[in-house]
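Posting this for the archive.
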Amino acid sequence: MFYLQAEIQYHYLRERMQQIGLPPEVMAAARENLVVTPKLKLLLDEGGSALVAQAIQQAFPAEPVDILCIDPIRNLFDGGPDGGGENDNAAMMFFLKDRVEVLRDHVNSDCGIILIHHTKKLSKHQVKEDPFLTTYPWAVSKAACPARHPIEQQPGKEPIMAHVSLTPSPMSAPFPGVPVVLALDLGTTTGWALQAADGLITSGTVSFRPSRYDGGGMRYLRFRGWLEQLANDAGTITAIHFEEVRRHVGTDAAHVYGGLLATLTSWAETAGVAYQGVPVGTIKRHATGKGNANKDAMMAAARARGFSPADDNEADAIAILLWALETRGGVQ
């Protein structure tokens, strides 16, 4: 089975597989018979279809692929010369006949095709009442045969598919019990630090300084978009910890902080993510032993822990994350 997906990054995809809770024998079979792409940016037009066909043939050199899954349609959709969307009947027929069918003919005219299309979020009650409420008659095409092709990769070498921008992600053991935790030092230049689902910590800064032509709300729209993209890339965020500032030197800084905080907490409420403010003194005391440590001391503390912060904003975010992890959010 070749799973062509353009939505979920590798680590989140692995976490989702863990949550399914498949039996060990099924996971073993998946390692041998399933090729999944990480999130990719590709339009399934004439050129993109050729790249995908080449990648499938390279992944399954001995026998043709049995099942091809495309997920989701909207991220790969090519509506033809008129540029219609996936909800336009003519554009959808063009995509199915001139793109999907042509792709299948190139790799295996008898393979099954599964197309994933986003419609709307359903409640648990709606799904229970009608599990097929949002399925479509074109979701499955032809009979799907059992997968039987072992996929091998030579150690130390990049997968062949990397040359066509489609990197297969072999199933690997997930990291149980590792929360995805985000720490933020809110401001025009926001520092951030993230523990991913594999335990790896990354950090950096992002600027939300508006241009001279931007309205006052663009800063917060960009911040919300950045949060959504980060959550999409990192996977389901377990908790967000941010520096809780009670006193600002200037009025403008207070306004910016308040706007970012409102944006963050409203997004977290919508996404169902727990959030917590951490007093400035608590962060500084945990990092340096002094509740009134200056910026240089915070930078030095981060470097002493093996990090290389670009500025004090990133250093503060790192300190917040380490506090959250080492005290379990203040519990210990």
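Residues 132-176 have pLDDT under 50 and may be disordered. Residues 281 and 292 are 6 Å apart (CA to CA).
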